[in-house]
Amino acid sequence: MNPAPAPGLQLLPVEGLPEIERDADLGALIAKAVELRHGDILVVTSKIVSKAEGRLVHAADREAAIDAEAVRVVARRGRTRIVQNRQGLVLAAAGVDASNTAPGTVLLLPLDPDASARAIRARIRELTGRQVAVIVTDTFGRAWRTGLTDVAIGAAGLDVLLDHRGTRDSHGNELSMTVTAIADELAAAGDLVKGKATGTPVAVVRGLAERVSEADGAGSGPLIRPLEEDMFRLGTSEAVRAAVTLRRTVREFSDEPVHPEAVRRAVAAAVTAPAPHHTTPWRFVLLESAAARTALLDAMLAAWQRDLRELDGWDEQRIARRTARGDVLRRAPYLVVPCLVMEGSHAYPDPRRAAAEREMFTVAIGAAVQNLLVTLSGEGYGTAWVSSTMFCRDTVREVLDLPSHWDPMGAVAVGRPATVPPERGERDASGFVVVR
């Protein structure tokens, strides 16, 4: 049974530790430097753990060392890189540290900080009989906040999260979201009495014995937010690139309705596309009712069948097979018809320049449609751009009661994907590039 909590909290620096070298017995050195009690929590800077574990490496090029430690680049700004390392930690430079090391060397983070914490804990218990908890820390920046603070990257002997969900506050309100990162709070508190420049890499937090457990526990893993729950997993440039490359054409949709405001946000992004002559050559018809979608698609199908029958001479069986391709629009719970308007275009008397003028505007509507698709993808919706309205523009204008100068430029099916779209490998740009 854990002892009752002490009436106050103490933060004690552990002074007198020697310079840590490879294969140093950290548990023994700490036990010798401070009189520990049951229920103490040791806050240990990762730097001395790395030194003891031989993570000091020769690296003339620090950037190459960062490359070797990183598994994913999260953000870049100038020479600064925020990356995810092998342990799942997201931090600057993968934790590669060139401070307080000899020139030409860098310190890497421990390979397994949780295992390091367990080893120190076990050694202290072996030598002193004391049951303590151990937190291994490193210095992190934080999104949206200026300044650095220490956080837990390894832990043993305590739960790193304190879950308040289901409890009630002082006003009787049930808490439904509050989960406190207690290990990070302890890491930051310990750093108040440690000294990065004064050789005090360990602190003792005393007064929270009720948090120290018999078992080593799950370690620091619960502190790492799963990628699927991380709303800010990419920096700006990475997010833009990912939004473009991760967009997929989706042809099967769930029954979940599409939120109209999400589509309007996508339209707002669409109309930021470049356009000639400072014009706004885009209009978006939003088919939010099933009746409107059915009326349009039935009229378009009839026009398509008529073309195949009268202009191409196809039989009914062949027509049925071909027109089945348009079913993707019927399966979608929402349709958007982007239209091109030539308002503000220049009039030319010759066909060459007149054609070029229209092509400029066509490029603009294409850019707007891409903005629409990418933004909807970011909202979690799947899309499929289908060109069919371009082949029966008069029909579309009549059914939707559109002005005669609005040119429908395909239709966009929108909905939640019924299945996860397949992965797509990166494309090599070299086959699409000509350099002069």
Automatic annotation (TrEMBL):
Transmembrane segments: none annotated. It holds the Pfam family F420_ligase. GO terms for molecular function: coenzyme F420-0:L-glutamate ligase activity; GTP binding; metal ion binding; oxidoreductase activity. Residues 17-207 form the Coenzyme F420:L-glutamate ligase-like domain. Residues 247-416 form the Nitroreductase domain. SUPFAM superfamilies: CofE-like, FMN-dependent nitroreductase-like. Keywords: GTP-binding, Ligase, Magnesium, Manganese, Metal-binding, Multifunctional enzyme, Nucleotide-binding, Oxidoreductase, Potassium. This is Coenzyme F420-0:L-glutamate ligase. It comes from Streptomyces tateyamensis.
